[in-house]
Amino acid sequence: MGLTTGHEGGALPAWQGGTGAREFGAPGGFGPPGAFGPPGWQAPSAIERGLYEAKARADWPAYYDLVARADLYMMQSRAYADTSSGDSRFHPYWNPQTQTMCLAVYTAGMLPEPLPDPVYNGYTLGWFARVWQPQDPPYLVVNPGSPCEGVLPAGPEGRQLWQRHDAAVEEHGPAGDVIHTLEQGGPLTGRVAFGLAVGAHIAVANGRFWNSLAYHGRGYTDEKRMLERWWGVTTREEWQDSLRRLLAADMVSGVWEFVLQLRRQMALDFAGPVDADHWRQAAGNVLRRRAEAAAQPRLTPDGVTQGSPVSPAELDGQVAGVQRLIGRITRYEARFRADGLLPEGGYVRSVEAWDHGRASGMARWGLAARLCTLAEAEAAVVSAGRLVQSAYRSWEDFSAAYVLGRCLHFDDEEFGDWYESVLATHRVLTTDPASPWRTLPWV
């Protein structure tokens, strides 16, 4: 056994049709399910279908290539995962086919619904090759008991083969933005599917199934680390607060929304495009009127309350900052139109999409980190979908708003990776026939 290198228990997997608790019969309390796939088995995703087809034609080099490209998930005790500081423990099971102890791993489509215990962590074939010890089992079994099962010899020659296939994957790098769909066990239509598609920017960029509600992500330990690193979330209460704020669009800057709402109102008042200089002037006028009103005494139930005057220098700074923001937005939108994110003459009306898209992701991250239940994650995903559907007119409209929010937060007009990466994801989601944005109607 070895240490994990730091990537980002329960009901039977969808391919077995199970909903109850799994029985564990292997030493240490962990082992693979005993049932085989039904005669009419359908692969949960392209990953397992590829493995099955390679196995059926006895194309073992192709099988190893697919295994090397896949995330391989291994069961762990949650208590051990929470206290092991990155260690991983092997739980071998007796395999009657090989008449030996074996170690079971699963590809993403074969994972069960996340329940409190056990949990699953994600690894690579190269990781197993590096950490395997002479006393470890003689075989690594991929998706045991399923039609796409593969029994991989783990002796010295076998591990060299694992390393060669892993090195080939490293050499060619990631495959880029691809739509990954859970074809069995994930919603493809309806409100839950729509809410999951709201988080598709994130799912596609991270190489995850866009429609996996019963989400494991990169594995329990990595999802916990990701939430702590990017969100400061380590407890259920912190997750609930972050989700609440995202659904309320409370993390999006109020200043961004102020200038966008002002332009939207101006467009209605003047029935046409809003000139950037006119927009800047109007924003300055509104801020100055607000400052004047805030400086006046107010009559309240408690009596007269003194106003809160703003110094001329502070007010000038606020006006200048808002006017600079308007310049940034107009330049981003010009680039969006040039790159096809916006139609000619189009503009972004609100960037609340940035929060709502992340709310859909937060729901699944919380489930992967065992900070919520499946029912809670589903409710949050549906809420995100309803909010987006009420605020935007199409997937393209939503996406442009999401991209602008992301760029205002991260990119600082560099038009670098923060922009280029989300632009590539947008293009895949709006053009690939397999994309939920092409298959799920907006209304």
Helix coverage percent: 40-55%
What's the main sheet like? 4 strands, mixed
For the biggest β-sheet, the strand order reads 2-3-5-6
* Succession of helices and strands: HHEHEEEHEEHHHHHHHEEHHHHHH
The number of helices is 17
Outline: elongated
The residue-averaged pLDDT reads: 88
- The counted number of beta strands is 8
What low-confidence regions span 5 or more consecutive residues with pLDDT below 50?
Answer: 1-38
The helix-and-strand class reads alpha+beta
How many domains in all? 3
Oligomeric state: single chain
Question: Can you characterise this structure?
Answer:
With 443 residues, this protein is of the alpha+beta class. The protein folds into three domains: 14-172, no CATH class; 190-252 and 352-439, no CATH class; 254-293 and 311-339. It is built from 17 helices and eight strands. A four-stranded mixed beta sheet has the order 2-3-5-6, with helices on one face. β5 and β6 form a beta hairpin. It is elongated.
What's a concise summary of this model?
This protein is of the alpha+beta class and 443 residues long.
Task: Sum up the structure in keywords.
single chain; four-stranded mixed beta sheet; two-stranded antiparallel sheet; elongated; disordered N terminus
